[in-house]
Structures are given as C-alpha cells and as structure tokens.
Design a protein that fits this description.
about 260 residues, alpha/beta, 11 helices, about 45% helix, about 15% strand, globular, hydrolase activity, Alpha/beta fold hydrolase, AB_hydrolase_1
Length: about 260
C-alpha cells in the first residue's frame, strides 16, 4: 500500500495522544478541547472519512487495512508508538494499532467487532438508514439538525440524549456522513470484522470503555470484551450511548486521561 496522506490537526501541548476520527469528528470536539489542556492531541481522519482520501483503488477498507494506513502515516507525522483512542470503528482501529505495535496503548470506546452476525446486521443496517437520511438533506442539514425531534430521529442509535446535541454539531455530523466516500464500502466490510484476543507477545496497555445505554453495540458486548481481553482495563461510562463523547465529555475525558497517564 502506498504511503497515505491523512488529514489531521493538532490541539494543545504535552505528551502526544492520537484520536482516530471517522463519522464522529463533531462529537469528539468537546472531548478534544478538554484533552488539549494536558496533551498534544493529534486528531486524524480515517481514510475515506472527513478530509482524508479513501484507500487506493482495489483496497477493501477493512478495519485491518484502515489500521495499516494509520500505522504508515504515523512516522511522517513525527509520532512513534503514541497512545491512540477511538470510538466504534475508530476504537477497533485503535485496538489493531496496539496489536501491531504501532500504538503504545489504546483506549477503545464501544469498539465494533464484538458482535454476532445478527447484531452486526442490526448495527450496520441502522447506519445505512442514517446515511440515507443524511444524503437526503445534504444540502440543508439544518432541516433535521435545527430541531430536537430531528436530532433524535437522526442520532437515537448513537447517543443516549440525542436532542441535547448542539445543532451545529449535528449539522456537521450529517454533512460528514453524507460526503464521506469511505462510508458505504467501510460499512459493508465491517460486518465481517471480529476482534481477536491479544497474544501474550502484545504487552500493550488497553482500556475498553462502554456506554451503559449503548443501543448500537449493547453493553452485553462489553462482557465479551472482558472475556476476550482479560488483561485490559474495562470501564463503564454511566448514562452514555454508543458515542459517549456527546453524552458526557467530562466522563470520557477522564477515562482517556486515566488510561494514558493523566
């Protein structure tokens, strides 16, 4: 795979922390701003999402391929085995970066890949509906984002209190979803992904955090994570949904800092 040029931005100062973004760029912002008080936060868009180009033609955007692209990008960004955090697909990428040794530690918020086939079909099917809604209002996302009922319909499967999402953040998320060329091929590829246990040869600190009100990947999947990764630190994010950054940025910030020496 040729070297990837990925879109990224840096906030704050201190020890580096990479945050992997996909559809959740706007949702992460309250957490990134808090993390930037203690870390140099490097927020990077996955290939095909946000402002990053897709993977090269002919490359299926599996979780492993996305992680490999980020791993190739890290040295050019001046980063050597940094701690990496992510949510959902980004969480699975963070775990694969830790598995490969490209990350010094990983914080995974509600990672995909701990689902059964029916659970994956449900989660990915609901995202397909959300994608259709976003594309339908791509030119005027405010038709949905400006109203609490619209935000609830658009984001009910992602956050515990979707009506509380700021209108500007909701509109940004809808735009990102509608215009990300990697969304549909990545959605199709993700259904086959299953998180594997780490071998003893991978002594990388890992934290897995799960929202107690996650409707996309329900909290019983956290029990599977605990069995599969017994050496990891497992955290419950009280009152949070699948994308907990919008529900409780303070709680998520503390979970990330606690896992990365803050």
């Amino acid at each position: 795979m040729p070297d990837m040029t990925l879109a990224s931005r840096r906030l704050g100062s201190g020890p580096p922390l990479v945050v992997v973004l996909q559809l959740d760029r706007d949702g992460w912002m309250p957490v990134l701003e808090r993390l930037a008080h203690e870390r140099e936060v490097v927020a990077v868009d996955l290939p095909g999402f946000g402002d990053s180009p897709p993977l090269p033609d002919g490359t299926t955007p599996t979780v492993e391929a996305l992680a490999a692209a980020v791993a190739e990008w890290l040295p050019g960004a001046g980063l050597t085995r940094p701690p990496v955090a992510g949510n959902s697909l980004g969480a699975a990428v963070a775990l694969e970066l830790a598995r490969s040794g490209a990350a010094g530690s990983a914080v995974a918020l509600s990672p995909v890949g701990l689902w059964t086939r029916p659970e994956a079909a449900y989660a990915l099917g609901s995202l397909r509906v959300a994608h259709a809604m976003a594309r339908a209002c791509a030119e005027r996302p405010g038709r949905i984002a400006d109203h609490s009922i619209g935000r609830t319909l658009a984001f009910w499967q992602l956050t515990a209190r979707p009506w509380r999402i700021p209108a500007a953040a909701a509109a940004g998320a809808l735009r990102n979803l509608a215009r990300s060329p990697g969304f549909e091929p990545t959605r199709r590829a993700a259904g086959a992904y299953r998180l594997r246990a780490f071998t003893p040869e991978v002594p990388v600190p890992v934290t897995v955090a799960w929202g107690t009100r996650d409707l996309m990947t329900p909290p019983h999947q956290a029990l599977r994570a605990a069995r599969l990764l017994p050496g990891a630190r497992h955290v419950a994010l009280r009152g949070c949904g699948h994308s907990p950054m919008s529900d409780d940025p303070e709680q998520v910030t503390r979970a990330v800092l606690d896992a990365t020496g803050g």
